[in-house]
Amino acid sequence: MRHSLSSLTRRAASVVRRSVLVPVFGATALLSACGSDSTAPNIPSNPAVETYAASLGVTIANMTRRSENLFVQDLVVGTGAEATSGRTVRVTYTGWLTNGNRFDTNVGGAAFSFTLGAGQVIQGWDQGVLGMKVGGKRKLVIGSALGYGNQGQGPIPANATLVFDVELLGVQ
Is residue 149 within 8 Å of 118, Cβ to Cβ? Predict the structure, then answer.
């Protein structure tokens, strides 16, 4: 079968676009390209290349990279006891999707307590709260591999990067 040069050029450009868009724009670009096909492949999020709503105040370049799926930024450095593995921590938090939609908060309510490093929370929290000191406030950007993975949870879609503001209230 003979193809014209312009036909081959269009076909090659299409392949290049697909191979570049998927890693750069992640699952969002792929899902847009696939339409509503529920058989789209499972592609974990990549916080380093996400686009964040301006209201979140996320600038990945200004954050500390703990892993390819966890970026942290101390907004206020605490002066109290340090959050270490095995200790129970009390926090307030607000969580957002990268588009700026808030999906959860306990600010104004009861503090949330968990044992750090015990797997009681998503891995991004176990790793992201580690080292905070009481009185500290930290922004966490968590890729889906350390969040809710390809299952999502409630209002959190599959393969979502999450943004949290966390304040450490106590360590026991």
Answer: no
